[in-house]
Design a protein that fits this description.
The chain is mainly alpha-helical and about 220 residues long. The chain folds into two domains: about 90 residues; about 110 residues, BirA Bifunctional Protein, domain 2. It contains seven helices and five strands. The strands form two sheets. It has a three-stranded mixed sheet with strand order 1-4-5, with helices on both faces. The relative contact order is 0.09. Its EC number is 6.1.1.20. One of its GO terms (molecular function) is tRNA binding. InterPro entries: aa-tRNA-synth_II/BPL/LPL (IPR045864), Phe-tRNA_ligase_II_N (IPR004188), Phenylalanyl-tRNA_Synthase (IPR002319), tRNA-bd_arm (IPR010978). This is Phenylalanine--tRNA ligase.
């Protein structure tokens, strides 16, 4: 049998083994058996030393063609098996989107928030605007614009937490009223506002008088 015939035989047998391989391990084993350093194709190439100078290029070119064909078949089969493994895994992990989702428990607004919302709806139905002011307020708007100058005795009842001498935690949501008056265009009608929110008083904290509570002023 000539070397070319032997190469053809090895090619056909190798392609058949590659095609029948059903796992990657078998494909890799075919590669080692055929294309490895101790494989039959390498053995055939060693026999080229006995060929004439005219035959060697032809057999060498044919040997390279056989190796390339086998390597291409190995790569193709390996890709097929890898894709099949991925498809099998995807099928096993398939998500049934028709199943009902898990119900996520939902909370509900705090009772104080519910009361504020109901009162806001009531006053808005009567034409009031809802003004949500800042809890950190200027002394000027919290007291002086409400006719409570610095020496007014009513301030003692509303002693509060000062951040600076002119900035404090508001003692009443009435501080929103002078700001609203400054910004309102009275040519468009009267001003009706409701100011809900948290206020602060530096009182003795007990069951009846907390240091912060909710007020609604209109």
């Amino acid at each position: 049998m000539s070397l070319q015939d032997r190469l053809t035989e090895l090619r056909d047998q190798g392609l058949a083994d590659i095609k029948s391989a059903d796992v990657l391990k078998k494909v890799n084993q075919v590669k080692v058996d055929l294309l490895g350093k101790k494989g039959p194709i390498t053995e055939v190439l060693r026999g080229m030393r006995d060929l004439s100078p005219e035959e060697r290029p032809k057999v060498g070119a044919y040997a390279n063609e056989v190796r390339d064909r086998i390597q291409a078949a190995i790569d193709e089969r390996r890709e097929e098996l890898e894709q099949a493994a991925v498809n099998e895994q995807l099928a096993a992990e398939k998500l049934d989107v028709t199943l009902p989702g898990r119900e996520v428990p939902q909370g509900q607004p705090h009772v104080i928030t519910q009361i504020i919302t109901e009162l806001e709806d009531l006053f808005m139905g009567m034409g009031y605007q809802i003004v949500d002011g800042d809890e950190v307020e200027e002394d000027y708007y919290n007291f002086e614009r409400l006719n409570l100058p610095k020496d007014h005795p009513a301030r003692d009842m509303q002693d509060t937490f000062y951040i600076t001498k002119d900035v404090l935690l508001r003692t009443q949501t009435s501080a929103d009223q002078p700001r609203s008056l400054e910004n309102h265009d009275f040519s468009k009608g009267p001003l009706k506002v409701l100011s809900p929110g948290r206020v602060y008083r530096r009182d003795t904290d007990d069951a009846t008088i907390p240091i912060n509570f909710i007020k609604l002023k209109g």
